[in-house]
Amino acid sequence: MAADLSQIVKAYDVRGVVPDQWDEALAELFGAAFVQVTGASAVVVGHDMRPSSPGLSGAFARGAAGRGADVTLIGLCSTDQLYYASGALGLPGAMFTASHNPARYNGIKMCRAGAAPVGQDTGLAEIRELAEKWLESGAPGPAPRTGTITRRDTLDDYAAHLRSLVDVASIRPLKVVVDAGNGMGGHTVPTVFAGLPLDVVPLYFELDGTFPNHEANPLDPANIVDLQRRVREEGADLGLAFDGDADRCFVVDERGEPVPPSAITALVAARELARNGGKGVIIHNLITSWTVPEVVRENGGTPVRTRVGHSFIKAEMASSGAIFGGEHSAHYYFKDFWNADTGMLAALHVLAALGGQPGTLSALVAQYDRYTGSGEINSTVADQAARLDAIRSAYAGRPDVTLDELDGLTVTAADWWFNVRPSNTEPLLRLNAEARDEATMTKVRDEALAIIRG
């Protein structure tokens, strides 16, 4: 096919419509290029439940084996299960998924051994260049040897590893509604939760990459309506929602109210610090709540603020030796999980925290949810740089605020802050605001939006 790889090779992964933008022939070239660039003698490959995933992952495996690498196919898995396999087996890996994108899409998330990310600056650009070259001139000649392709099931080992990191066996019985969104949570949750004192009410556990019930993106409020209703109907203690490849987890309390990912970050940070003797670095991106660094300091830890994006978090995790990191988008990263993100491990922490005391989840997380946030508000703009300049000009001369440009522009005062970041892929500015009370947050949010929207 005459593929335009600039359209499908993104900052952190490959993602596009199948077969319009890419197909199995191109997946095979990606497999060969992945081995060539990483120098891998062996790789591990997994895939989600999308109709195109088995064929694409099989083609990638053939391409990798053709360049001499031995391939371990782990079949259906969540993205964090692939990271587990990469870490436990010490192998570079490739996960075929388009996360929460619609059914027509598919993609590849690639990593080096130990789940170290492969992005534009860490090999993905070179993989794209090789694939483009081979698209034009034909695939490379045969390697000195052809690798083997074998199958291995890692689900039980993945579940056992997660349960070894959180003591959930002694918690009180809990009723939990789990919305898998027809994604990979329906595959992993039954095994990870097996034997725990949980009454699990399953929602949409049937693996179906056409997503017949709702998009598998729990950050969109429309996609957790069913979960919220079911939690209330069942009188459940909490609800969990996973995205399509089950690497993100979103939590609702016993009232069906969403628990902000920042509050989950703060809760898990406190627990991870306790596990590590009250010492350790905790990473948080710059649009998580003020609560996160406050809780980290209160529990003896050192908060480190980073840009938004998993490549920045993972790089900082590695360089600082951080024990945990969290993002506003419900990605949670653990040192004990090769610095990779796993929503399932965060979910186990929430279950352990709730089940280890008699109160409700809403009462438990109140101490980790101290401020009022706007959530992320997107505005389409004609000129991102000009609107950012307008905000900078509006606030630069004020003695009561500070400005920083770690990622976009952050304006901070004593009782509030907001951040405006440009999208890398769309003509959007993303606003996040937070304040000590609702009225202040509303005022700050509306002032910023008035400037952004001109």
Automatic annotation (TrEMBL):
GO terms for molecular function: intramolecular phosphotransferase activity; metal ion binding. Keywords: Isomerase, Magnesium, Metal-binding, Phosphoprotein. The keyword Isomerase applies. Residues 7-133, 156-256, 266-371 form the Alpha-D-phosphohexomutase alpha/beta/alpha domain. InterPro entries: A-D-PHexomutase_a/b/a-I (IPR005844), A-D-PHexomutase_a/b/a-I/II/III (IPR016055), A-D-PHexomutase_a/b/a-II (IPR005845), A-D-PHexomutase_a/b/a-III (IPR005846), A-D-PHexomutase_C (IPR005843), A-D-PHexomutase_C_sf (IPR036900), Alpha-D-phosphohexomutase_SF (IPR005841). Its cofactor is Mg(2+). Residues 376-448 form the Alpha-D-phosphohexomutase C-terminal domain. It comes from the Bacteria. GO terms for biological process: carbohydrate metabolic process. NCBIfam families: PRK09542.1. Belongs to the phosphohexose mutase family. This is Phosphomannomutase/phosphoglucomutase. It comes from Streptomyces naganishii JCM 4654. The gene is manB.
